[in-house]
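Listing S7. Sequence submitted for prediction.
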Amino acid sequence: MNLERRTPLKRTGFKAKDSATWRTRSPLRQRSERRAREMRTQRVPEVQRLNAEGVTCQVCPVLQCLGIRTHCARKISGLHERRKSSSGGSRENPANLVPACSWGNGYIEDAVGRDRGLIEMSSLVVRQRDPEWDSLGRRAWRER
């Protein structure tokens, strides 16, 4: 069997109209001034304080217990929100915030398939059907 091609394959380039369409899409929305101020005055100092105290990532050990291979840096770079602020979760309630390295937090957000199911069953993510849902909300934290 002869595998040699007699005529070369035709190459197609990137079409100009495709790149123009891509450039006209709206850019990502910037953080609101209120959210930026909150990050500067609360979240960043909290992460710096935890790093100074020697607190390490608390997300990756849970992932390892679930049988998920991690690439943890051990040093925390942020706080994982168990109930997302976009769904009414508190950004200040310590019960809602878990110190996390960027790899661990990103993995929780992007996990699919079997790993996603394991993470859903762990205490790292709280959904509306969970008993903790109301206690981790902004309203419950403000009313304290």
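Caption to Listing S7: primary sequence and predicted structure tokens for the chain studied. Strands lie at 78-81, 97-100. The chain has a mean pLDDT of 84.
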